[in-house]
């Protein structure tokens, strides 16, 4: 538990040095998506929906709902290359847009269950007679599997003699 605690403290201190709400690995992925998507033509539709043409495929990106027809944005939680293209085309900074999606209260909602308090309890002891004693003094019977007699060797097979 001490190793886990020291690791969590170390990661917390490292996360305080981040520029925004996202970490360096996610920021690198966002920059890669920006580099991949800079050359794609964009066609605006209504209500924040845009169309991106990649080779022969047409993909619809909804900026308001954070969705793309490639499903990359929903799976990873960061804008895919198509969404990065649209965010650049409307004149916003992609990293700022991602920071707005990754606000601290949202992270607390996502990861709050993972960091709930860890219950610690004392381990019960096993006596020589097979009884289990808890730290409160309760006695439990041990449920061991029944003993089975093991045969001394492998059984011989009853072979059918050849008909010829």
Features:
flat; Znf_SWIM; 6 helices; 7 strands; alpha+beta; three-stranded antiparallel β-sheet
Explain what this protein looks like in three dimensions.
The protein is of the alpha+beta class and 164 residues long. It has a domain at 3-111. The chain has 6 helices and 7 strands, in the order ααββββααααβββ. It has helices at residues 2-16, 24-37, 72-76, 81-89, 94-101, 104-111, and strands spanning 42-44, 49-54, 57-62, 67-68, 125-126, 131-133, 139-141. The strands form 2 sheets. The chain has a 4-stranded antiparallel β-sheet. It has a 3-stranded antiparallel β-sheet with strand order 5-6-7, with no helix packed on it. Strand 3 (57-62) and strand 4 (67-68) form a beta hairpin. Helix 2 crosses helix 4 (81-89). The protein is flat. The mean pLDDT is 77.
Please render the helix and strand layout as text.
Elements lengths: L1 H15 L7 H14 L4 E3 L4 E6 L2 E6 L4 E2 L3 H5 L4 H9 L4 H8 L2 H8 L13 E2 L4 E3 L5 E3 L23
Antiparallel strand pairs: 1-2, 2-3, 3-4, 5-6, 6-7
Helix pairs in contact: 2-4
């Amino acid at each position: 538990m001490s190793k886990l605690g020291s690791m969590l403290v170390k990661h917390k201190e490292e996360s305080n040095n981040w520029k925004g709400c996202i970490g360096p690995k996610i920021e690198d992925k966002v920059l890669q998506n920006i580099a991949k998507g800079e050359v794609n033509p964009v066609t605006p539709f209504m209500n924040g929906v845009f169309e991106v043409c990649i080779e022969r495929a047409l993909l619809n990106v909804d900026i308001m709902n954070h969705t793309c027809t490639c499903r990359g944005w929903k799976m990873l939680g960061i804008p895919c290359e198509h969404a990065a293209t649209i965010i650049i085309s409307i004149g916003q900074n992609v990293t700022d847009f991602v920071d707005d999606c990754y606000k601290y209260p949202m992270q607390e909602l996502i990861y709050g269950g993972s960091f709930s308090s860890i219950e610690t309890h004392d381990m019960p002891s096993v006596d020589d007679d097979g009884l289990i004693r808890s730290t409160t003094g309760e006695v439990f019977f041990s449920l061991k599997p029944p003993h089975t007699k093991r045969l001394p060797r492998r059984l011989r097979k009853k072979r059918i003699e050849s008909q010829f």
